[in-house]
Amino acid sequence: MLGKGMKTVGVVTSWVPALLFHFFWRAFTTVSIWMGIGFLLTFFVCYMLVLSWADYSYIQPASSISCAIVALLGTFALHEVVRPLQWIGVAIICLGVFVVGHTFPSTTEHR
Length: 111
Hints:
6 helices
C-alpha cells in the first residue's frame, strides 16, 4: 500500500521548500499511504506478540514468508514485473521457511 501510494504521489523533483511541502502534503493526505502505515503497525504488534512465545531464531526466518506475499502483491496488485530469477529466490526463501517451520519454536524455558 505504501508503494502504491507513493506512486500516486510522485517523485521529489526539487528540494525547494514549497515543493517539498507540497510533496509531503500529498503523501500525508493519501489514503493508501495511511493504509500502509496501518498495516505496518498491525504487523509490528503481531510480531511483538509472536516474539512473546517463540524464539527470535524461529520467528525471523519464518517471517521471511513475507517475501512471497510481497512478490505476489507486487505482481497482482501493483502490476509490477517479477522476473524468473526473482521467483526462484522467493521459492528458495519459502523452502527455508518450510524447514524452519518444522522445528520447535522455543528452545528456552519460560519462567
